[in-house]
Amino acid sequence: MATFNVVVADPAEGAAHPVEVEGQDANRFIGREIGDEVDGGAVGLTGCTLEITGGSDAAGRPMRADVAGAGLKDVLVTGGVGFNPERDGERRRISVRGREVSDATVQINAKVVETGDESVAELLGEGDADEDDE
User: Fold this and answer.
1) What is the mean pLDDT of the chain?
2) Which terminus of the chain, N or C, has fewer Cβ atoms within 10 Å?
3) How far, in Å, CA of 52 to CA of 60, rounded?
4) β-strands 3-10, 105-114: how paired?
5) Which burial class, exposed, middle or buried, applies to 63 when counting CB atoms under 10 A from its CB (0-12, 13-18, 19+)?
6) How many other C-beta atoms lie within 10 A of the C-beta of residue 131?
7) Is the dihedral of CA 34, 49, 22, 122 positive or negative?
8) The model's pTM
9) N-terminal to C-terminal alpha carbon distance within the chain
10) How much is the average pLDDT of 75-94?
């Protein structure tokens, strides 16, 4: 069974919320690609829609939208995901994962595209805990 750490970014709040997903809910992500939309019910966000924006594997290799499949691939890059050039014209061959979510994926990055009646923090139960402590 697959287990993922899904980091849900909420552009409206400017916050990110980590959620661990396993079992049947994790299977909703397998086979999806970067840019695909997923029902938020998989991470406890009923009524929301999420868009997969990236992810990484256990070794920290990032997923790239321009690499097909789910496997590892060595690509020559001049910038973008996985490489930040330090000087003009610098290129480097790096190992990256493809754009498809698989069992080898450990972390999935997603953003909220559509929200329901409640905010993301309320649905995840994070908004009330901070207010009670004050």
Assistant:
1) 89
2) C
3) 17
4) parallel
5) buried
6) 7
7) positive
8) 0.85
9) 40
10) 94
Sequence-separated (6 or more) residues with CB below 8 Å from residue 20: 3, 4, 5, 6
Place of tokens 């990484």: 56
> Which token pair is 64?
């790239």
Using CB atoms within 10 Å of the CB of residue 26, give its burial: 0 to 12 exposed, 13 to 18 middle, 19+ buried: buried
Tokens representing 73 are 């691939």
DSSP assignments along 42-91, one per residue: GGT-TT-EEEEEEEEETT-PBB-TTS-SSSEEEEEESSSTT---SSTT--
Residue showing tokens 């661990």:
20
Distance CA 17, CA 130 (A): 14
